[in-house]
Amino acid sequence: MDKDDVDSADYSIEVCTDPAAIEADDWNALLARQTEPTPFMRHEFLVALHAGGCAAAETGWAPRFVLLRSQGRLVAAAPAWLKSHSWGEYVFDWAWAQAYQRHALPYYPKLVVAVPFTPVRGSRLLAADAAARAALLAALQAVARQEETSGVHLLFGDAADQATAGEAGWLARTGVQFHWHNQPGEGWADWPAYLADLKREKRKKIQQEQRRVAQAGVSLQVIEGPSIRDEDWAFFHRCYTATYLAHGHAPYLDQAFFQRVGRTLPAHWLMVVATQGSERIAASLLAIDRARGIAWGRHWGALAQVPCLHFDACYYRPLEWCIDQGFQRFEGGAQGEHKMARGLLPEPTGSAHWIAHQGFSGAIADHLGREGRGIEAYLDELGEHSPFKAAPTDRG
């Protein structure tokens, strides 16, 4: 790679094909300096994805982690993957790939800066300062040229990532997710207080759904962090796999991955297990960050069908736990307008894209302009349907 493609500053550039070869302490220290660090960007999580083969060349996720060093010190890094498909990204570009195909041009491989299978906003361009972040972005473009890819896609980056990409002329794309925020001030006192702030029809629906689960003889237990045993992870994976297969898809993650992150990142997990009679029948998995007061709903699976259990295990019990623990935010994952009825409100998410082919770059820019205006209108429309009695900023 030509250093002149990156920056005139004195950076040495490395492309790493195995995240385990990167010094864990250096990576995690750099992550800790960012504005939106998440457990999913920790070295342990990324290594677990690769080591178990969930995100590896064999599954279409070939690592091309880009590192910048100055005087031997790691000053910037990004988890990048050479992709031969668009599965597991949650920023959908299938139409772009089809357009390339119609013009007899290759869309794959492409370079993706992301956490595989994880639609969670957070810092992606880990950098010591703004200059290193800009140089890292240029290095990613250089890697993309060297690998002869169609472009680079920065998914679910934080505000600093998006701003740096915008300054470099990358195309911006907006998506929508649904997040819950605790009441301003000290937060809701408890679950009944939260329900009381919802509009009557929303409150009654939640109460009816929880009552149906209880009447089916199902109880929910929350297991946090180190208390999650290997057998709990094995049970969860059984549920997770069964649900994927029931929908006609192979699961992205295997049991070894879950047990590995359970051992290496024990403080960052919360499992909600559903039991009917003496049998465990379902489970949901959340990631948590106690220091920042954030929880992320991540995975779910069931071995038996109980009406409304998904809502109770994936939203109501996690929200009740967040309120009890004084957490400030719960992110419910990708898409899902149904989450609004549970008190999760729409928020924009961002991605940034560098397209190597100038003609397609212009066409995609036009498309994103139209799409962006549609997203703005969609957010405005959703904003008129709050489930709360009063707007969030008016509650106190």
From TrEMBL:
Source organism (scientific name): Ideonella aquatica
Highest taxon of source: Bacteria
Top-level taxonomy: Bacteria, Pseudomonadati, Pseudomonadota, Betaproteobacteria, Burkholderiales
Protein name: N-acetyltransferase
Membrane spanning residue stretches: none
